[in-house]
Amino acid sequence: MTALLFGYFVVFMARVIDVTMMTLRVLMVMRGKKLWAATFGFFEVLIYIIALKLVFDTLDDPLSLIIYALGFAAGNVVGTWLEEKLAIGYLTMQVITFRDAWNFSDRLREEGFGVSLFPCQGREGCHQLLNVVFERKRFRELEKKVNEWDPKAFVTVMDTKPIRGGTFRATRK
């Protein structure tokens, strides 16, 4: 009985690790980090094959299949959580506001954010658009600053591919 429980645990953990690796590999591909993607892919496939072999050896046991599927589901949760904690890469936040954005954009630049300011036209008249590029790990910090500055601003956030040029903290090195 102990060996059976241990087998379930190994299958579950192998799936959690393999799917976590898959999630991170896909995110590394999207962010242009080829070496990281290849490394995650290597371990992902290695662990996947081990888990698959263990399940194939016990195909007559329905609980083994359920444990395998639960490991897959848990791996998605763990992979997404881990990716959020690592916060690798960049985001672009677009902030549309009626408020005068000049002073706010200067303050953001002083704090290391890359900011471009544009006039824009909306249904309710002329606005200002701040296009802010920043490291993903600073998302909550910027979100709080924007909320304090203009709680009614229209805000969108997009994933940003690798960048070059410009002046902000990430490119000053």
From TrEMBL:
DUF2179 domain segment(s): 113-165
Membrane spanning stretches: 6-28, 35-56, 62-82
Main location: membrane
Highest taxon of source: Bacteria
Domain DUF5698: from-to ranges: 23-80
Gene Ontology cellular component list: plasma membrane
Entry-linked CDD domains: YitT_C_like_1
Matches recorded under InterPro entries: DUF2179 (IPR019264), DUF5698 (IPR044035), UPF0316 (IPR022930)
Pfam families in UniProt: DUF2179 (PF10035), DUF5698 (PF18955)
Membrane topology term: Multi-pass membrane protein
UniProt keyword terms in alphabetical order: Cell membrane, Membrane, Transmembrane, Transmembrane helix
UniProt subcellular location: Cell membrane
Record carries keyword Oxidoreductase: no
Family: Belongs to the UPF0316 family.
The protein's name in its UniProt record: UPF0316 protein FTV88_2324
Species this protein is from: Heliorestis convoluta
